[in-house]
Specification:
Number of helices: 14
Number of strands: 12
Structural class: alpha/beta
Oligomer: single chain
Largest sheet: 6 strands, parallel
Shape: elongated
Order of helices and strands: EHEHHEHEHHEHEEEEHEHHEHEHHH
Strand content: 15-25%
Radius of gyration: 21 Å
């Protein structure tokens, strides 16, 4: 039997993984919870963890999402007591995101799993370099489940439209306020909370506020989606920017699910996947976007758009997570 402990919050990436578990027929150990109160969610998740002791048995597999506040280590321990296998998919690494753990501490925690799904080859190698010795595989890209059909078009806008969706608070994305001199070939639409319109003097930045993911999927219209963080135009810096060297940003999945090719940093961990699959282009600096767009042919762009449409179908099916969950189940059966 395959079991999982449900996420119980509003995180889109984690909720999609829970949905994929259900599509695959896995059994949810977590009781139904209608309350949004933290205390209620705490006890519901605790109940799910305790059920490992009564429901899970020898030869079964427990699927977890990491990080899992307070309960990850004990859930793994309980599963192993019952002679079950533990499979975990990583969403964030604390050593990079919150700096609360050393690589050794985090690897000790993750080493309680038997089969681990990292974001990409860079993250996989980081884990191996810091002592992870069990099976670890690369997800490649997060799936993005949505029944909403995005706008369909292949002819680019004039000027080109680049969308940036996500947290727009100035402490995270100060680069947005520095773009004006380098936007001759393109304009940008912004979606998300935190943008300071009163400080924007760039007429090519168009802010549309915060929209729920399904509404945004339906309304967004752009030629490219930008994946960038930090203060600099020439690199992704700061905690959020440097994190792009090892993680798979969920906004990348949103753009591609919407059929939109992407622009990524040349040092981003996702760059190989994007370029190998023709899903966009990479730049060392945001100052280079003008030149790339000026030299991009309509035919080249159509190929990127077609690739994005192809991968959008895979993301909606949950292809990338499912293939590893199935592999983990097969190895357990073996």
């Amino acid at each position: 039997m395959n079991y999982f402990i449900e996420n119980i919050n509003q995180n889109k990436a984690k909720n999609d993984i829970d949905t994929i578990y259900k599509r695959l027929g896995y059994t949810n150990l977590t009781p139904m919870c209608k309350s949004v109160k933290p205390v209620s969610r705490f006890f519901v998740k605790l109940t799910g963890v305790l059920r490992i002791l009564t429901k899970v048995g020898r030869g079964d597999t427990l699927y977890l999402q990491y990080p899992m506040k307070k309960f990850f280590y004990i859930a793994c321990t309980f599963a192993h007591w019952k002679k079950a296998k533990v499979v975990a998919i990583i969403h964030d690494l604390g050593v990079f995101r919150r700096h609360k753990l050393s690589p050794e501490q985090e690897n000790k925690r993750l080493s309680k799993t038997d089969f681990l799904i990292a974001h990409n080859e860079t993250m996989k190698q980081h884990l191996i370099d810091n002592g992870f010795k069990n099976t670890v595989v690369s997800l490649d890209i997060f799936d993005y489940l949505s029944e909403t059909e995005p706008k369909a078009y292949t002819t680019p806008h004039k000027p080109w439209i680049v969308v940036y969706a996500g947290g727009l608070h100035k402490w995270r994305t100060p680069f947005l306020y520095k773009l004006q001199p380098y936007m001759k070939q393109w304009q940008m639409t912004l979606f998300g909370p935190g943008f300071k319109e009163d400080e924007n003097i760039n007429e090519k930045l168009h802010y549309h506020g915060f929209l729920k993911p399904e509404v945004l999927m339906q309304q967004v219209e752009a030629d490219f989606g930008l994946v960038w963080d930090g203060s600099s135009l020439d690199e992704c810096d700061g905690d959020w920017g440097s994190y792009l060297k090892i993680n798979n940003p969920h906004k990348t999945s949103f753009y591609i699910r919407a059929g939109i090719p992407v622009i990524v940093w040349s040092q981003a961990a996702m760059k190989p996947f994007i370029l190998e699959n023709g899903l966009g282009f990479a730049v060392d600096s945001l100052r280079q976007i003008d030149d790339v767009l000026a030299n991009l042919t309509i035919e080249e762009y159509k190929k990127m758009r077609e690739a994005a449409a192809k991968f959008a179908v895979l993301l909606e099916k949950g292809h990338f997570a499912s293939r590893h969950f199935n592999a983990a189940t097969s190895s357990s059966a073996g």
